[in-house]
Specification:
464 residues, mainly alpha, 19 helices, 69% helix, globular
């Protein structure tokens, strides 16, 4: 009898071990999950493309003026490189923390370490920030088509209903953005991300080409070092906004086919090197083209020639936002669904409904209220929280859970590193907040660039 019970227990154990669902959902190391489950998702190249596409954005147009206002090329590169070390490290930290908690988004990862009462706060921040970014993307799309139509058709285009900004923005976004917003996994968007990366590379090439082929000498030569330390701090907000892909880092890691922190670390490092190179080329070449104090807030605005290559670059900026909007919406929708699930169960149809409401509301606000820069600037404070504060807290809690007494020297160093990241996050948030308040107080009478967002807002409508 005891022998039969033993055999039954062995057969039951074997059945559990062979059960894919248990192995896929059990809180275990990623290596075990990858060997035991057949997973679909992105490879290393697709993950790199997703990260690069989520990081590189229309902020590239403002990097040249950011280099100018930071007081020089050398200081801008040094600050960008130092911040990039921490930015890359926090991407890896988020992936590792996600692996430990077996979660697939930032709000759930943060809640696992800090308690589920913090889920609401983190998810709410993600929803607000994501919606603000989506608004900005749509406004940029309208800006680009406005400029193309004004150049080739004339300012009378706004009096033609099918060329007006509301109609063109609504139609193009509904055709190219809306269909990409219903996917349930980010790996599908990797194909669109390839297109987004190509558009940014083309714009960077154009900026470099314009610098190499310029014929006029500079009135004010470029500077290498700033006149004072405060100038150098002014590039920090745009760097944080330009490199903000941390909100999407955990979903990207979750959709990897061969999911492991080591491979994601390789993807993160390569992606940040690519972004650093692109932003640096755009910043240095754009700055060198116009000279100190002469760089426009939107680098493409400074080129007055009516050429095909310039028109393609302007359209490509709109295309870039077509490919980035669905990624940001995915994170915001996921955070909103996390809030809704705490109250009642939701279905796939409800997710489609949320997607439609999100898109329609953002499109309506972008069309009716084209100048929302003061609000978006204030939301820029959250970018520093996503890059530094949240990952730093997760690392701190993760180390304490594994080694509460800090017996290992490695854990002690990691705790110190986590504290440094958190402190840096609060410092950067303070700088961003001060710049946002200054932009808000100066108002529309100044040509001051809103460095918090890095995105240009039209001072006056082209149709006025």
């Amino acid at each position: 009898m005891s022998f039969e019970i033993f055999n039954r227990l062995v057969r039951e154990t074997d059945r559990l071990i062979q059960n894919d669902m248990i192995l896929c959902t059990a809180r275990n190391s990623s290596s075990v999950r990858n060997h035991q489950c057949v997973r679909s998702g992105t490879n290393v190249l697709s993950t790199i493309v997703l990260i690069v596409n989520a990081t590189l954005g229309a902020g590239i147009l403002n990097f040249p003026q950011a280099f100018d206002r930071a007081g020089g090329i050398a200081m801008s590169l040094i600050i960008q490189f130092l911040l990039l070390i921490f930015i890359t490290a926090t991407l890896v930290i988020l992936a590792n923390c996600s692996d430990v908690t077996n979660t697939s988004n930032m709000q759930n990862t943060f809640a696992e370490f800090c308690g589920h009462r913090w889920l609401f706060l983190c998810a709410l921040f993600i929803v607000i920030y994501s919606f603000g970014c989506c608004l900005t993307f749509l406004i940029i799309v309208g800006d680009q088509f406005d400029r193309v139509l004004a150049t080739y058709y004339g300012l009378d285009y706004c009096h033609t209903w099918y060329l007006s900004r509301p109609f063109v923005t609504a139609v193009t976004c509904s055709i190219f953005i809306l269909p990409l917003c219903f996917f349930k996994k980010l790996d599908v968007l990797s194909y669109a991300s390839f297109v987004g990366c190509i558009t940014v590379l083309y714009v960077t090439w154009l900026i470099a080409y314009k610098n190499l082929t310029k014929t006029e000498s500079l009135i004010n030569p470029v500077k290498i070092w700033p006149d004072n330390g405060y100038q150098a701090l002014q590039i920090i907000p745009i760097i944080c906004f330009a490199y903000q892909s941390h909100m999407t880092a955990i979903p990207m890691y979750a959709c990897m086919k061969d999911r492991s922190p080591g491979k994601f670390a390789v993807c993160a490092v390569i992606s940040m090197i690519i972004c650093f190179a692109v932003y640096t080329v755009a910043g240095v070449c754009g700055y060198a083209t116009f000279g100190a104090g002469k760089v426009p807030s939107d680098i493409l605005q400074g080129y007055t020639d009516k050429s095909t290559v310039l028109t393609i670059a302007i359209i490509f900026i709109a295309v870039k936002n077509f490919t980035t909007y669905p990624i940001v919406l995915y994170c915001g929708r996921d955070a909103l669904m996390s809030l809704v699930r705490t109250s009642f169960n939701v279905s796939d149809r409800f997710q489609v409904f949320i997607t439609l409401i999100w898109y329609v509301l953002s499109l309506a606000i972008a069309i009716l209220v084209p100048d929302i820069s003061p609000v978006i600037n204030l939301l820029g404070v959250l970018s520093a929280a996503f890059i530094f504060i949240f990952p730093g807290i997760c690392l701190f809690q993760n180390i304490l859970l594994k080694d509460s007494e800090l017996h290992l020297n490695k854990d002690r160093l990691l705790i110190i590193f986590a504290i440094i990241i958190i402190a840096l996050g609060f410092f950067v948030s303070g700088v961003v907040f001060v710049e946002a308040i200054r932009d808000l107080n100066i108002g529309k009478t100044s040509e001051k660039l809103p460095l918090v967002t890095g995105f240009r807002q039209l001072r006056e409508s082209l149709c006025s």
